[in-house]
Amino acid sequence: MAASTSSLLAAASSSCAAISPRLARAAPAAASVPSPSRPSCPILRASSVSSHRSLFVASAAPTMQPPAESRVSTVVDVDLGDRSYPIYIGSGLLDEPDLLQSHVHGKRVLVVTNTTVAPLYLEKVTWALTHNNPNVSVDSVILPDGEKYKDMDTLMKVFDKAIESRLDRRCTFVALGGGVIGDMCGFAAAAFLRGVNFIQIPTTLMAQVDSSVGGKTGINHPLGKNMIGAFYQPQCVLVDTDTLNTLPDRELASGIAEVVKYGLIRDAPFFEWQEKNMSALLARDPSAVAYAIKRSCENKAEVVAQDEKESGLRATLNLGHTFGHAIETGLGYGAWLHGEAIAAGTVMAADMSHRLGWIDDSLYKRVVEILGESQASHCTSRDYDSGDVDKKVADGLLRLILLKGPLGSCVFTGDYDRKVLDETLHAFCDS
Ligand SMILES: NC(=O)c1ccc[n+]([C@@H]2O[C@H](COP(=O)([O-])OP(=O)(O)OC[C@H]3O[C@@H](n4cnc5c(N)ncnc54)[C@H](O)[C@@H]3O)[C@@H](O)[C@H]2O)c1
């Protein structure tokens, strides 16, 4: 990576000053949610309905048909041939044992969670796994909470528990928590006995709109974020939107950075919807939150179905991440929340795109505006000096995802004027 860490990080740090928080906004009257419509992608056939009777999907995916009284309001299929799986979205899904149980393999389950989420939801999930299901036994491992524990030592605790509990290849791992737990549990499932079944139960907005979908799993290395991992798809993703009721505001705002990303890179109508409904999202309006999760999952599933292992298109999902990961690595994991770093990185990417003449003034301002609206105010630390490694360096070149053209278009490129990158970094440094 040609840019020095300190310049990247200084740039990012300054960029946050430009992203003023406005979290304490009053709740709007009601979110405007587009009426149910099928997404444009023919691969995905998700539908949103307000009644209990939901529309379900026909594809190669092992999608079960939830019963008529199910609270599942949306199913999004991730279409990956024989590794396809459904994302169930709805309120109260953890109260539906059949849904979860239908994706369990074998008689042994290991729930991987952390010290914050366990007191909130472990009992409920254990009930959902075992209700009217005496054949299944559930073990759990409760990891320390935080990005700084997304490492090899903590991962070993999962293997320790699995081996002590004498789990065999027919077991199922269940990730119960945010993106950190999902990434670690998924990686453990990929590696334990060379691969066991796993289920994602994401409980943060970040995890519900992004990290639980698509099969990227892994841990951090002190020199670089998410540097060790595997592509490993879950059996299903179960998004119970009620779990967001306990999520702190700062974490909710952090997740919105990834929602904004989908609009910017490929879904202009979704971005426009966000501009109108950001206050509703931050105020946790249930229909706004449900729509944001649904549309985000549809976008992610569509991209992953076309490019599971990130040979091209999927890289666009990393908008803001090259800068953002450098911030996280340089500042120390957990100093900024992941979404805060990504928001800052997205503003930097938009700034550079603007300097290159690839987007106009108006779009640049809209990016700053919407991320300003969504972001928290914690991005103030200047305490950085460690090195960074970013996996988006390919063949020695720093590749960036930049916005280009009208709203909803982007490029993944190493072909830009290097001076412009430096200008962006300096501009953020000096401001
Ligand atoms: N695999 C992917 O494709 C992908 C995509 C995006 C992000 N990620 C990864 O996800 C991680 C960030 O995820 P995150 O933002 O969810 O962070 P996180 O997992 O650290 O969760 C944030 C905090 O919220 C707490 N929490 C979780 N659910 C809660 C609930 N319902 N109520 C109260 N507290 C709750 C957690 O214990 C934690 O303290 C990063 O490591 C990032 O690299 C991965």
Automatic annotation (TrEMBL):
Q: Which GO terms describe its molecular function?
A: 3-dehydroquinate synthase activity; metal ion binding
Q: What is the lineage of its organism?
A: Eukaryota, Viridiplantae, Streptophyta, Embryophyta, Tracheophyta
State any GO CC term: chloroplast
Cofactor(s) the protein needs: a divalent metal cation; NAD(+)
* Family that this chain belongs to: Belongs to the sugar phosphate cyclases superfamily. Dehydroquinate synthase family.
The EC designation for this entry is 4.2.3.4
Cellular compartment(s): Plastid, Chloroplast
**Is ATP-binding tagged as a keyword?**
no
Q: What's the protein here called?
A: 3-dehydroquinate synthase, chloroplastic
What is the organism of origin for this protein?
Eragrostis curvula
**Source taxon at top rank:** Eukaryota
Q: Which residues form the 3-dehydroquinate synthase C-terminal domain?
A: 255-375
Q: Which reaction does it catalyse?
A: 7-phospho-2-dehydro-3-deoxy-D-arabino-heptonate = 3-dehydroquinate + phosphate
- One GO process term, biological-process aspect: aromatic amino acid family biosynthetic process
Asked whether the UniProt record includes Plastid among its keywords, one would answer no
The 3-dehydroquinate synthase N-terminal domain covers which part of the protein? 141-253
Q: What metabolic or biological pathway is this protein involved in?
A: Metabolic intermediate biosynthesis; chorismate biosynthesis; chorismate from D-erythrose 4-phosphate and phosphoenolpyruvate: step 2/7
